[in-house]
Every structure is written in structure tokens, then in C-alpha cells.
Write a structure and sequence with these properties.
One of its GO terms (molecular function) is metal ion binding. 44% of the residues lie in helices and 17% in strands. The chain is of the alpha/beta class and 442 residues long. It folds into three domains: 125 residues, Gyrase A, domain 2, CATH 3.30.1360; 120 residues, Four Helix Bundle (Hemerythrin (Met), subunit A) (Up-down Bundle), CATH 1.20.120.430; 151 residues, Rossmann fold (3-Layer(aba) Sandwich), CATH 3.40.50.300. The two termini are 22 Å apart.
Length: 442
């Protein structure tokens, strides 16, 4: 593969976090790396694979540090190439000098995710597994880490390959009819039924597997209410820090404010919104429109109310099909009858917050129950949605009795969408887009 040959030169990068630490590991990979590296080491002359050597590392001909050296012989390495890991004492100055020595020896600074990129190109892992690795590294909650871990172990490639094979079989049937139009008559009814069954299966898969992506990104939780009901105070209380400006002046919050909050290992993306009311202020009205959009996209709504206030804003909100927590606020300044509310709180004093957090987890338990298959990247979901779109278009084409060659083109495009998901037809642009989000050294 030409693309594979582009990424074989020797590279190096710090694989551990930069900063003062007990150990800092530098990773090297590429063709003939020992020829460049061994002159920098006191020993060994002929290292054996998978053995740890205690040796000295030299920079500019002088001792720099006593290190641990491990050699991995191709193809039995993470990248599938010759690899070396060098463990230094974790002083950034030592690492800078070591990296300078490696660059002078002919190594190149690795690009973000380039080690994993090479693992994909060399067939050590597939693209979905590479994305699962990145998801494990970047997980922001325990549940998100569990999702990423399961995606790494179980993956989605097997299920996606089954869908692809079904599409290819349908495509083969269509191709026979294209090549022998006088001998084979197109059975539009049978073809339509098979395409419809496949579309329904893929649609159900997307719905189930997308839970993993929602868990990783955080459950969108929108705090909704009239002006001055205490939405920003509640956000600050949930975060245990002052994030939003709190004021008695109505309309202080004019834009949505988003923050991550972990409750019992579940990640919530909590969104404070502008108070919903009739306004002649153009800027405030823009904030209100953004609030309504956030409400539309929300997984969970916290309807915050002051029992002494006006709940008229609810008339502007469509709550059908929404998960809702009705919370009465300001229990610190008045006695509140809890009838009609799920929880009574004081955002100012923290009273009732534990009950609210418990409700947030309970109301979204269906979103955090992981199915058999898991999507961990938006790219994977987009590829599946593209596949589904082409299948729907092919069904419409069949219903309209268009020529079979157009149906063939649409079904082929559906297969290509799954090929992109699996990384069957890798391009440099695709790899750049995926691995630009990885850390350097991975």
C-alpha cells in the first residue's frame, strides 16, 4: 500500500505526560531504528526483543541519564514496526535533551496519534479499535471509560462487517440483473423487502450503539426556568464552584453555559440557559432562542420553578417525550408544598441537591445501560447514518421504478460508507481527521 510506505521513517515522542515525575517514557518506531539509537547507548550491542536493559543514554557524547531500554522486534510490536521504549528519570530538561539527541540521530518528532496510525496501516488493529483506544485515554467519567473499554474489547467491526456482507449480496443480485437484462427480470418487491429489512436492522443498531457516544460526550441536561428562578445558582451549586454569574437583575444570563458534571460515575453535560420570557431586548431574545434550541436537543430537562413565580414560560416548551425533573427552588426563604414537584431544593444553601442528583441518575438510567455493541466516535455514527441514507434512497428509487442501475449506485454507496467506517479504503485525509485528536506519543 502506497499510504503505508509514507509512514515508515523513524519517529520518536514522549509517551508519558510532560512534567516532573518518577519516570518519563520516550517511544521510538520505524525502519532500522537500532542503527540510529544504539550509538546513544552504553549497552547492549545486540539487544534481544522484550528484554529490559539497564543502560546509560548519551547526549552529545556525554552521559545524560541512566535508563531502562526495551526493544520490540517487528512485527511483534504495537505499531508492527521495530519499536523501542526508553524510560528516563522524569525531569523535563532530561527529556528535552534526550529528544534533541534522537532528532540529531535521524529520528522525527511523531505526529499526534502516529504510533496508532501506523498500527492501523500495518494491520495490527482496525480503525474502530484505534478510536476505542483514544476514547479510553480521553474518557471523562467512569461510565465513559467502561464504554470505551468494552468497545476496545468487543468492538463493532464484526457487526458492521455482517451488514456490509448483506449489502454486497444485494449488490451482487442487482449486478446480475444489470449484466443479463434479457434473462433476469428485476423483482422490485423482493429487492425492496430485503433493503427495508436491512435498513431497519441498521437503524436499530444505530439507536442502540449510539448510547456509548452519548455516555462519552455527557448526557445533555438543560436547566430551564423563568428569569431569576435560580438557574445559574443551581449550576454553581451542582458544580461546587462559581461558574455562572448570579444576579438579582432579570436577564443576566444571555447565553447558554455548559459544564461537565460527574454523578456516581455518569457524565452529565449541564447547560444553564437564559430565562424564558417575552423580551424586547434583541440580545436577550437571541439567548432565549438558544435556550429553546438547547431544550429541543436535551436528554434531560430540569424544570426549575419558584412556587411564587409565573410558570407561563412552560407554554413555549414542548415537553412531549422528554425526560423531566420538576424542581421547586428557594426552600430557604419560604415553606414549599412539594405537591406537583419531583424534588424541593434550595440552590443557595444546597438543601435537596443530593436528592436532585439521585433523580438525574434515575431519570437517565435507560441512556446509560450499555447494549451489546457500542459506538465511541461521531465519525462511526456519521458513517452508519450515511449508509442508512443511501439505503432509504434506494428504497425510494425502487418505489418510483427508476432504472436498476441507479439503485445499484445507491446500494454501492451504502457499502462504501461502511468501508469507510471499517477503514477498508484508507486515505491520508481520513487518517489526518481521525488521528489529529490523539495525543502525541500514542
Amino acid at each position: 500500500m502506497e499510504l503505508k510506505r509514507l509512514f515508515t521513517d523513524p519517529i520518536c515522542a514522549l509517551a508519558t505526560a510532560r512534567g516532573v515525575s518518577a519516570i518519563a517514557t520516550v517511544r521510538c518506531s520505524g525502519e532500522r531504528i537500532l542503527e540510529r539509537l544504539l550509538p546513544l547507548l552504553e549497552r547492549p550491542d545486540k539487544p534481544k526483543p522484550r528484554r529490559i536493559y539497564l543502560t546509560s543514554f548519551k547526549a552529545k557524547g556525554e552521559f545524560l541519564d541512566e535508563i531502562l531500554f526495551v526493544y520490540f522486534q517487528a512485527p511483534a510490536s504495537y505499531t508492527g514496526e521495530e519499536m523501542v521504549e526508553l524510560s528516563f528519570h522524569g525531569n523535563p530538561i532530561i527529556i528535552d535533551r534526550a529528544m534533541e539527541a534522537l532528532l540529531e540521530a535521524g529520528f522525527r518528532q511523531a505526529l499526534p496519534g502516529e504510533f496508532t496510525r501506523r498500527a492501523v496501516l500495518n494491520g495490527k488493529i482496525d480503525l474502530p479499535k484505534a478510536e476505542a483506544i483514544n476514547a479510553m485515554i480521553t474518557s471523562r467519567s467512569e461510565t465513559a471509560l467502561d464504554v470505551a473499554r468494552r468497545s476496545y474489547v468487543e468492538g463493532i467491526s464484526k457487526e458492521i462487517s455482517i451488514f456490509r456482507e448483506e449489502i454486497i449480496r444485494l449488490l451482487a443480485t442487482i449486478e446480475v440483473e444489470l449484466n443479463y437484462p434479457d434473462e433476469v427480470e428485476t423483482d422490485y418487491k423482493d429487492l425492496g423487502e430485503k433493503l427495508n429489512d436491512l435498513s431497519e436492522s441498521i437503524s436499530a443498531f444505530i439507536e442502540s450503539a449510539s448510547k456509548g457516544l452519548r455516555i462519552a460526550q455527557g448526557i445533555k441536561t438543560v436547566i430551564v426556568g423563568e428569569t431569576n428562578v435560580g438557574k445559574s445558582t443551581l449550576l454553581n451549586a451542582l458544580l461546587r464552584r462559581d461558574r455562572a454569574i448570579v444576579s438579582d437583575i432579570p436577564g443576566t444570563t444571555r447565553d447558554t453555559i455548559e459544564e461537565d458534571l460527574s454523578i456516581n460515575g455518569v457524565l452529565f453535560r449541564v447547560i444553564d440557559t437564559a430565562g424564558i420570557r417575552a423580551s424586547n431586548d434583541a440580545i436577550e431574545e437571541m439567548g432565549i432562542q438558544r435556550s429553546l434550541k438547547a431544550i429541543e436537543d436535551a436528554d434531560l430537562l430540569i424544570l426549575l420553578s419558584d412556587p411564587a413565580g409565573d410558570p407561563g414560560y412552560l407554554q413555549k416548551i414542548d415537553l412531549e417525550g422528554k425526560r423531566v425533573i420538576r424542581a421547586a427552588n428557594k426552600s430557604d426563604i419560604r415553606q414549599i408544598d412539594g405537591a406537583g414537584y419531583d424534588v424541593v431544593i434550595s440552590a443557595r444553601t444546597g438543601q435537596g441537591l443530593a436528592s436532585l442528583e439521585k433523580l438525574m441518575v434515575e431519570k437517565t438510567v435507560d441512556l446509560t445501560s450499555i447494549g451489546e455493541q457500542i459506538i465511541v466516535s461521531a465519525r462511526q455514527r456519521v458513517c452508519l447514518q450515511e449508509c442508512l441514507r443511501y439505503l432509504h434512497q434506494s428504497l425510494e428509487a425502487i418505489e418510483e421504478r427508476v432504472t436498476i442501475d441507479i439503485v445499484s449506485t445507491l446500494v454501492e454507496s451504502a457499502a462504501k460508507s461502511l468501508d469507510e467506517l471499517l477503514g477498508r479504503n484508507l486515505t491520508e485525509d481520513l487518517l489526518d481527521r481521525i488521528f489529529s485528536d490523539f495525543c502525541v506519543g500514542k
